[in-house]
Amino acid sequence: MLARSNTGTLGPPARPSASYAQPPRNPGFDESLRLPPLQTQLPTSPTQGSDSSGGPSASAPTGLGIVVRDLRESQARSIEAMVMSIPYINKLKVLGKISPPLGPPGPSSPAVETRGPVLALEGRSAALVKAVSVVIEKSLASSGECAVRTWSANTPPADTGSDDAEMVDGQSPEMSKSRTTSVSSGSSSSNPFGKYLQTIMEWHGKSDDIIKHVTTKPTGEQSDNAVDKTAASSQLPVALITDGFSLTLSDKFASSVPIADSYAPVDHWQWMATLWRGIIGPDLVIYVRSATEDEVNTLGGVDFKSAGIMIVRVNESKGLDEKTERRLGFEVMEWVRAGTFKEGFGRE
């Protein structure tokens, strides 16, 4: 091995200091020309960047030493933040055009027996929405004027099939339905978009149930008392959606379904919202929002933003107080008695 001479050679380069000092800037330097730092591109689809495709795993570092999984989580948080930054009033107006309330029957449509209202609870806090829905249901039922029926995410659609059993591909309807449900559940359990489509399909079925309820006079079939039956027939059918409807679910799935194309988060949310087309919209949206004690005292616990949007402000740390409960029950019943949702349906 050749010995290295100490004469006429350069020493090793000096190590950079711990705190990197930027070179002095020219007074005439245009800051707009400075390039942003390098960023690592995320895989745009679930199949990219997986172990089976030869790419980095979900937790493998990229060329810049950044963990892909962390970047995905960061991207998901960013999408959710942008989706939730859209004012809820604007979203409700969009959904009101996509999924409007039940309109009056046309000239060639069959007449309806009655027209009751559809009320939907919306909000970001599931606990607050649940608390408010309990108060509203109690107020409607205790008035004696309403035949209240509730719907939620867990309410199964009514079976609209015929009573006669038919064979489908050599199987009974029950077996065919069970097989379809099993396949659907399996395919959507790990795919949030598939789960959203399944949710939309379920609400299409529930929508038919809701329409039937609010356009059919109560009969009091469960009572043997003639007086009770007469009283029931004079009640107004009310549909109450208790745990979030089109706004809550559009927000939820727009935040959880990854954007794998060029859609901006706002367009991504609006596309999710358009899937509610064909489903009955609420006559009254009751939006529950968390508020400080000062906001509740200054703005009030219950407020109408428009004829079809009621805002309920609740201090999350204290919950619904007795004053707000009474005001809420009063305002809901006054809105129901006003009957603006009956316009175009004629007199009963």
From TrEMBL:
Name the record gives this protein: Putative hmg box protein
Organism: Phaeoacremonium minimum (strain UCR-PA7) (Esca disease fungus)
Region (Disordered): 1-64, 151-190
Top-level taxon of origin: Eukaryota
Chain intervals with Low complexity compositional bias: 34-64, 178-190
